[in-house]
Each structure stands twice: as C-alpha cells, then as structure tokens.
C-alpha cells in the first residue's frame, strides 16, 4: 500500500497492515494472546500487588510486579494502547516476565477510557500516576513506556519539570501516535471528540517546541527509545521518525529503531519472550 494515496482511516488502522493473518482477526487474536500471557503471569511466583489506587477515576488502579531481584530500584511503567478507548491493565502484563527476571520492577497502570472521559482527562490521570509513584510508593528511577496510544500518553509526560520532579530516567515509546491531527476525520475520533484546538494541545509533536531541556540533561541525562514495527503503516513510521527527530533537535538522547519482522501487535506481544530483540533492547536501555 502506498502511504500518500491512502486515507487516514486506513493509515491509522494498524490491523490493515498486518501480514500474519486476515485484518478482521488481528485485534481479537491480539486480545486472546495478551490475555493468556497476562493470566499466566498472575499465576506465577512473582510478587504481585494488584489494584493499588492512584487516583479517583474508576480505572485508576495499578499492578506492581516484583521478585527478590527488583531491589535494584528501576521501575518500568507500561501504559497499554487501544486508541484511548479500548483494552485494560489486566490483559497488559505481557512484558512482565523478562523484565522482572532482569531485576526491573514493572508497574502496569489502568486508566479511564473515552468516551467516558476526555483525552485531556486521561493525560491528567497519567500525571497523577507519576505523582503517586513518587510520593506514595517512593519509586526513584522511573522508565515510562507505552504502546500505540499508551506511547502517546507516556510522551505527554515529556516536560523538563515533570521529568525532574518525578525522577523519570527515560521513555520507551513503541509504535506511538505523537501528532493527533490525522485522527480528526477518522472513526477513532467518534469516542475522542477531538477538535483542531484539542488536537494541537494534546499532540507531543506540536507542544514540545521551545521547551528547554539543557538543565535536566546535565543533571539526569534522560534518554528516549523510539521504536516502530516494520509492518506498521507508513503513517506510524513517519510519526515515530518525526518525533525522534524533534527530541534530537531539543538536545535529548534518542535511539530510533525499526523492529523488523513484526507488526503493530506482535511488536509488543513478543515482549513476553526474553530472546526477542526489543525485549533485550529495553532491558539494556534501562540497565546500562
Ligand atoms: N482499531 C484498531 C486497533 C488498534 O488500533 C489497537 C489495538 C490494540 C492495541 C493498540 C491499538 N492501537 C492504538 O492504540 C485496528 O483496527 O487496527
């Protein structure tokens, strides 16, 4: 498919770009897989502290996964995707095993979904999440990650003051959307009801210009991993490349990588496998 000739509806429907199976099956299959892996994780021997409330919203609960190795005090926070209107934390623990085995604590937060709440509300919930991790759980080295819409939410926390006050060491952004404008005329926006103004306000590709990160770069040296799938649509490729370019322009340390042989869904499903290249990249990124 040639990017420029396709509508945003097509470009922002990740399932249509999957080569492993018929597009109609991908999302259901994805849910089946992530649910299965997440259930296995909950039955395993990890220390799980489930449903800790971090804010007033119905879904503002988080799960913490640890073992005896996680005293290293690195915490990976993984924000699930689903276009801010789908999925939940209970089926999003698939990245836990290899990370906890490497000594990294994993937090899987839930958040309220559109149309019940607005995207602006959801961004505020993630803000409350970071406050809770710092003030109540006393976590220090936070690695904020997310997939798709979850990468957008993680990227919405990129701000010098937030990074400094919440002890964010890095961002792990997987197949994210950083410019919301192309979603305006798509079916995705039915639940979101974004307009031109809110699109601009909530697009990290738009609202980071002019921020000064030089102060925190000398103190914290925050770093960014921006990855996307070979079989993501050209629009997703473009967004990740543009966003990595912007972060670089702002003087930040960025690694941009295309993960070959995967699509929008197995790019994260495979995180349950310790030998998958992105799993190894993330562990290395956090521990080195
Ligand atoms: N309706 C979308 C599904 C989708 O975008 C999606 C599904 C699971 C996890 C993340 C997704 N996308 C962004 O958050 C599609 O048909 O591809």
Descriptive account of the structure:
By secondary structure, the chain is α/β, with parallel strands linked by helices. The protein has one domain: Alpha/Beta hydrolase fold, catalytic domain (Rossmann fold, 3-Layer(aba) Sandwich), CATH 3.40.50. The protein is 39% helix and 20% strand. The chain is built from 13 helices and eight strands. It has helices at residues 8-11, 23-43, 96-101, 119-135, 149-155, 160-166, 189-192, 196-201, 204-207, 214-219, 234-249, 266-269, 277-287, and strands at 47-53, 61-66, 74-79, 104-109, 141-147, 168-174, 223-231, 253-263. Strands 1-2-4-3-5-6-7-8 form an eight-stranded mixed β-sheet, with helices on both faces. The longest helix has 21 residues, at 23-43. The radius of gyration is 18 Å and the shape is globular. Residues 13-15, 27, 30, 81-83, 87, 148-149 line the site of N'-Formylkynurenine.
Brief characterization of the structure:
With 288 residues, the chain is an alpha/beta fold. The protein contains 13 helices and eight strands. The longest helix has 21 residues, at 23-43.
Helix segment tally = 13
User: How would you write the strand order of the largest sheet?
Assistant: 1-2-4-3-5-6-7-8
The ligands bound in this entry are: N'-Formylkynurenine
Strand tally is 8
Structural class by SSE content? alpha/beta
Oligomer: single chain
The biggest sheet, with number of strands, parallel, antiparallel or mixed sense and barrel status, is:
8 strands, mixed
Residue share in β-strands: 15-25%
Which fold name is given in CATH as the topology?
Rossmann fold
| Helix content, binned percent | 25-40%
Look at the structure and give the mean pLDDT: 96
End-to-end distance, in Å? 39 Å
Number of domains: 1
Elements, N to C (H/E): HHEEEHEHEHHEHHHHEHEHH
């Amino acid at each position: 498919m040639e990017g420029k000739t396709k509508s945003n509806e097509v470009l922002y429907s990740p399932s249509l770009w999957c080569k492993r199976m018929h597009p109609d099956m991908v999302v259901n299959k994805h849910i089946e897989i992530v649910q299965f892996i997440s259930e296995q994780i909950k039955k395993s021997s990890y220390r799980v502290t489930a449903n800790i409330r971090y804010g007033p919203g119905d879904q503002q609960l988080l799960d913490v996964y640890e073992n005896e190795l996680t005293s290293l005090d690195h915490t990976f926070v993984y924000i699930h995707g689903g276009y801010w209107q789908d999925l939940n934390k209970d089926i999003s623990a698939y990245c836990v095993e290899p990370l906890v085995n490497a000594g990294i604590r994993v937090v899987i937060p839930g958040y309220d979904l559109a149309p019940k709440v607005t995207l602006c509300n959801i961004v505020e919930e993630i803000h409350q999440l970071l406050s809770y991790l710092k003030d109540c759980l006393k976590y220090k080295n936070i690695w904020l990650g997310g997939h798709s819409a979850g990468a957008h939410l993680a990227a919405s926390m990129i701000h010098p003051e937030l990074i400094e006050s919440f002890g964010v060491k890095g961002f792990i952004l997987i197949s994210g959307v950083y410019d919301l404008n192309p979603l305006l005329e798509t079916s995705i926006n039915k639940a979101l009801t974004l307009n031109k103004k809110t699109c601009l306000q909530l697009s990290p590709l738009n609202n980071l210009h002019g921020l000064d990160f030089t102060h925190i770069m000398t103190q914290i040296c925050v770093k960014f991993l921006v990855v996307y799938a070979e079989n993501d649509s050209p629009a997703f490729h473009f967004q990740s490349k543009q966003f990595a370019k912007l972060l670089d322009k702002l003087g930040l340390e960025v690694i941009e990588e295309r993960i070959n042989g995967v699509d929008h869904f197995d790019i994260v499903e495979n995180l349950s496998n310790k030998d998958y290249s992105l799993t190894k990249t993330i562990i290395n990124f956090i521990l080195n």
